[in-house]
Amino acid sequence: MTVLEIETGAVQVDTSGAGPELVIIHSLLTGPEAFDGVVGSLENDHTVHRVYLPGFGASTPLIRGSVSITDLADFVATAMGAVGCSPLTSVLGNGLGAFVALKLAIEHGESFGSLIASNCGAGFSSERRVAFTNMSHLAMSGGMAAVADVALKRIFPAQFQAAHPAALGERRLVLEMIDPGAFSAACLALATLDLSEQLSEISKQTMIIAGEIDQTTPPEMGRAAASSIPDAQFELIAECGHCPQIEQPEALVRVLRGFLDG
């Protein structure tokens, strides 16, 4: 674990492996440790940097009235600069991290190479925006313990929940350690996000990944995003929900290797 000082405070970055660089940006409801099953394979021939977003791990929450996806993209760009990432670095984001990665490509495209966005889209429907707003209020009124049950049901398909109770217990512990204010701010950032007019500005080699049974960011959101980004690839992982790094890490590694090695 490395904790670096940047303009907004501290940022935690876990680095392992050797070879071409890959930055991983985690989702709202799972931390970077959720990628353990993926990093174990990729670090054999990649230098993997797992960046902790504000309020996760040892990263300082952003102190301001509201936080936007642009703020989080700026945070990641600064963290990548502090680590010394080269302009050829690949970036992978999941969920919230994927939206941040898309915005990173729009605002800081010169700072990295290829882009992989897993389980995302241009923005959310009105119904899903309300869900994020409700989670924001719940976190502030009852803390992260109050959010846990709702969050776990959002990210994991029912069949995965039934078959992997231990994994749900691990996710609950991680959720309860997140700073409630940072979580609430990220929820509101997602609730107001709309990249529909900006995705066409992305000029990077891009792959959008979707889970076939993802209820949080359904695959049609990913397909629409991929169709808006010039020459973007789209990859569907069968029988997978919102977190392929937990649900189907081997399938995710195959998809990533096919893209990164190509």
Cα shape? globular
Broad structural category: alpha/beta
Q: What's the story with the biggest beta sheet?
A: 8 strands, mixed
**Overall pLDDT score:** 95
Q: Which parts are unreliable, with pLDDT below 50 for 5 consecutive residues or more?
A: none
Q: SSE string, helix = H, strand = E?
A: EEEHEHEHEHHHHHEHEHH
Trace the largest sheet across and list its strands.
1-2-4-3-5-6-7-8
Beta-strand proportion = 15-25%
Output the number of helix runs.
Answer: 11
- Portion of residues in helices? 40-55%
Counting DSSP E segments of at least 2 residues, the number of strands comes to 8
Radius of gyration: 17 Å
Give the CA-CA distance, first to last residue.
30 Å
Describe this structure in words.
The protein has 262 residues and is an alpha/beta fold. It has eleven helices and eight strands. It has an eight-stranded mixed beta sheet with strand order 1-2-4-3-5-6-7-8, with helices on both faces. Helix 1 packs parallel to helix 11 (249-261) and helix 4 (126-142) packs antiparallel against helix 5 (144-155). The longest helix is centred in the middle third of the chain and has 17 residues, at 126-142.
